[in-house]
Design brief:
By secondary structure, the chain is mainly alpha-helical. It contains five helices and no strands. Helix 2 packs across helix 3 and helix 2 packs across helix 4. The longest helix is centred in the N-terminal third of the chain and has 13 residues.
């Protein structure tokens, strides 16, 4: 049996439009995942889940936007 994959999954691809925006905003602000987690009161795992699109909890998205001093619409 042969399986053909035209575009292999890299582990960083997501259909959640906010995921890349959060990672980009975090990097632009000069935060590591751990620093952002500490700043907004979330765990590093919760930040990573948002950045990969595995989590889309609105309250967590709001907390991240506030910690980055951005309007929520900037990360959505």
């Amino acid at each position: 049996m042969t399986i053909s994959v035209s575009a292999p999954f890299t582990g960083h691809e997501t259909s959640a439009p906010f995921a890349g925006k959060i990672a980009s905003a975090r990097n632009a602000a000069g935060y590591t995942v751990d620093q952002l987690a500490l700043t907004c009161g979330l765990t590093s795992q919760e930040i990573l889940a948002l950045e990969t699109g595995a989590d889309s909890d609105p309250s967590r998205l709001r907390r991240v936007a506030n910690a980055l001093q951005l309007p929520l619409t900037a990360v959505l």
